[in-house]
């Protein structure tokens, strides 16, 4: 791996109060001494003691940063993090300058003068990974945290960033290594030399592990819904008031409403935050037999939305014969109805603003059912999901083929442990690492 000196703007690009430029490399003490060789004086305070060659790590130095010609670039704060006590495990310098594009460019030029180069996407984290500062699940957590929009996403991301998930994975992996070592030992050693009933014990332990991993994976839908949003789709016949309800729920007139049946053609979607959960709400074309080419395409799209939905809000204008269990059944235009006694449905009226408290409550209840029961103790993404499923298959095969075949059993358990190793990045192919780091932004 390269360990030349890299730098990047770690704060958001553009104009800001303060910009943070981060530099990582092998030995940055000389560069740091150059950065702080012109101490600045904070308003109202004395000039700090002149720097006498000894740099204090993690200390904020206020400095007049100058270029080669001695011209002032900006007044900055500079901090030195000595290896290995830094994010990347290398020496790191942080320069906090004024957040102006002109200043930032000038500092970049200054750093290039020292032979440093701009970092690639995710390169800081990649270095942290190769210096054993983070494993891949920590990096997954970091990516999720930077993407987090809602409080729930923040909580889950932090949980994996702070090592909670790697602890569980490491525990699983250690157990598998132990199981496969014992099963190999059964072949090589006398039973007197091994713990009592070891054959039964390893089988029981493997089954227990399998159950635990399976139950974590079953929370994937919830995990994914937290990360990508919970998909709610409004469906029903034309003209029942789907677009009106959509607008009501989001509090703005995004979707076109008209008394012409077949108004909505394209799917109209927006995101909202309900109780800290990210919701993707979609309004769709009303379902009816249509000869209109465009409307037909719209209706096709409705079916696709239904397939990807976590929750369907089915809108009618009168109580249908069959109420579908896992949908929310809404009877809209209830201002036009006399009989409103069915307990299984929610009567709404956009016109009279009736029933939306109940609808919101029902949505929350459905979300609670999904998240409350299923939410996994680990955060699973597409990458880890695939590897966990492969782990499950290996463990199932191990148990299936157990029957005294300890070498085959050991081999399957070992393969299962390799998959967990891949999740952690202990066993890594460059592809996995590349895919993960390329999802990070510059400066991370
Ligand atoms: N009386 C009454 N009229 C309503 C209510 N909700 C909607 N409408 C009217 O019903 C008509 C159809 O509403 P939309 O929201 O466009 O219905 P839609 O289900 O989206 O229709 P399509 O997009 O064609 O499938 C409009 O004229 C609305 O003003 C309601 O609660 N009561
Ligand atoms: Mg509509």
List keywords for this structure.
444 residues, alpha/beta, Gyrase A, domain 2, Four Helix Bundle (Hemerythrin (Met), subunit A), Rossmann fold, 3 domains, six-stranded mixed beta sheet, 12 strands, flat, binds guanosine-5'-triphosphate, binds magnesium ion
Give the topology.
Layout: E1 6-9, E2 16-25, H1 29-35, E3 61-66, E4 72-81, E5 91-99, H2 101-112, E6 117-118, H3 123-130, H4 136-147, H5 151-161, H6 164-188, H7 198-217, H8 220-228, E7 230-236, H9 242-250, E8 268-274, E9 277-283, H10 293-307, E10 311-316, E11 328-331, E12 346-347, H11 356-374, H12 382-400, H13 406-424, H14 430-437
Parallel strand pairs: 1-6, 7-9, 7-10, 10-11, 11-12
Antiparallel strand pairs: 1-2, 2-5, 3-4, 4-5, 8-9
The chain binds guanosine-5'-triphosphate and magnesium ion.
């Amino acid at each position: 791996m390269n360990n030349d000196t890299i730098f990047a703007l770690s704060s958001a690009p553009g104009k800001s109060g303060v910009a943070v430029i981060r530099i990582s490399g092998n030995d940055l003490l000389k560069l740091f001494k150059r950065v702080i060789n012109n101490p600045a004086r904070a308003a109202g305070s004395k000039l700090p003691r002149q720097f006498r060659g000894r740099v204090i790590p993690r200390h904020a130095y206020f400095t007049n940063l100058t270029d080669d010609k001695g011209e002032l670039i900006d007044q900055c704060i500079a901090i030195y993090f000595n290896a290995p006590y830094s994010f990347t495990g290398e020496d790191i310098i942080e320069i906090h300058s004024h957040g102006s594009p002109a200043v930032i460019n000038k500092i970049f030029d200054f750093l290039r003068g020292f032979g440093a180069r701009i970092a690639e996407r995710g390169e800081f984290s990649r270095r942290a990974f190769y210096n054993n500062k983070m494993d891949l699940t920590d990096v997954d957590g970091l990516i999720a945290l930077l993407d987090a929009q809602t409080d729930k996403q923040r909580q889950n991301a932090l949980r994996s960033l702070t090592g909670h998930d790697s602890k569980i994975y490491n525990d699983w992996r250690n157990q598998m290594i132990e199981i496969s070592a014992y099963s190999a030992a059964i072949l090589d050693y006398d039973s007197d030399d091994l713990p009592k009933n070891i054959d039964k014990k390893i089988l029981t332990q493997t089954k227990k592990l399998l159950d635990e991993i399976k139950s974590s994976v079953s929370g994937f839908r919830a995990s994914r819904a937290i990360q990508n949003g919970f998909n709610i789709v409004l469906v029903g016949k034309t003209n029942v008031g789907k677009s009106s309800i959509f607008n009501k729920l989001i509090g703005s007139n995004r979707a076109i409403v008209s008394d012409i049946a077949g108004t909505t053609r394209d799917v109209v979607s927006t995101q909202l935050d309900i109780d800290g959960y990210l919701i993707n709400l979609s309004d769709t074309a009303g379902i009816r037999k249509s000869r209109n080419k465009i409307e037909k395409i719209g209706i096709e799209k409705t079916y696709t939305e239904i397939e990807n939905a976590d929750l369907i809000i089915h809108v009618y204008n009168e109580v249908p014969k069959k109420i579908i269990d896992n949908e929310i059944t809404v009877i809209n235009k209830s201002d036009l109805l006399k009989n409103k006694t069915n307990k299984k449905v929610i009567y709404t009226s956009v016109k009279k603003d009736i029933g939306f408290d109940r609808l919101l409550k029902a949505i929350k209840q459905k979300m609670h059912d999904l998240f409350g029961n299923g939410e996994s103790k680990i955060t699973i993404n597409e990458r880890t999901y695939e590897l966990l499923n492969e782990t499950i298959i290996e463990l199932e095969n191990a148990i299936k083929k157990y029957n005294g075949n300890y070498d085959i059993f050991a081999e399957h358990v070992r393969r299962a442990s390799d998959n967990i190793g891949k999740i952690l990045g202990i066993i890594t192919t460059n592809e996995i690492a590349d895919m993960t780091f390329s999802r990070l932004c510059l400066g991370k």
